[in-house]
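To: structure subgroup
Subject: Chain for Friday's discussion

All,

I'm putting the inputs and outputs inline so they're searchable in the archive.
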Amino acid sequence: MKRLIALLTAGVMIALLAGCRKQEASAQIFAMDTVMGVTAYGGSAEKAVKAAEEEILRLEDMLSRTDPKSQVSRLNGSDGAAVAVDEEIVSLIREAGTYSQATGGAFDITIAPVVAAWGFTTDTYQVPEQADVDALLAAVGMEHVTLAESQVTLERGTEIDLGGIAKGYASDKLEAIFEEHQVEHGMVELGGNILLIGSKPDGTAWRLGVQDPAKPNEAAYAAIVQLEDAFAVTSGSYQRYFEQDGKTYHHIIDPATGRPADSGLTSVTVVTDRGSGSGTMCDALSTALFVMGEEQALEFWRGSDYAFELILVTEDGRVVVTKGLEEALMETKESGYTYEIVS
């Protein structure tokens, strides 16, 4: 794994820490409520970037929870009736259900009404009454979703939000586009979801900086890893939050409690090699493992059938890195964090 530099910042930007002079095509797109960057080198780079932009916008139109014309919005407004949707939607919901089952419900797309009750869908933040949260939790769980070949039924009161895997899924689709256009080197940043094609054009690895959650508005990094041919996704409490009565509430909701996850973690980065895992997998697991907390996340890493590595940033000032990333890790001494390699 080798060197240019893409940074996993507060989930909305990418910064190049070392420039490339042989850039062939790039684009910046605002979609899925974030800024996205697509860069390609070699092959039919311009066509690849154009196709990637069109694909991102297509997925946004289909998966958006806030666009009343999207298929997801039609599902959420169905009042218990079966709704005909594209088979792609059915397939993605089914995959989400697989991750929900694998993580014991720590990842769950039906948490949508609870997230909305906290105001994270509309940015009208509030702390809901626990009785209201409990009432919404009664309709949370994949058992309230029925799938057919091209039809989905949500029980009354159940709504879905595919935002937890939409960007990861988009990175999988863009990977296929880059392969189709024979892109030799490339980088995609979809709001903290990273796809790296090959190495940087000069043969060295891309360097990915994991944002320091304690300094979300600064170019400060808890760690840097050198990667190539990989997916990497970060979920962090610093990415979206609000304060009320002196307490901070973040957007990663624990489906078991209906409240922001109190797991002792401030960010989770999931990394997998292309060919071993997917962007969708990384996206789902980064959320689920944040909810689980350090101990359970590491148990899951050791015992699951998924191929991935982890970078956990803890509330008590540690960066916990799984063994497979040891050689790729660059410590940032100035950050004040201590570093632990686990196996």
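Points worth raising on Friday:
Confidence is low (pLDDT under 50) at residues 1-21.
The domain at 68-163 is CATH 1.10.3980.10 (T-fold).

D.
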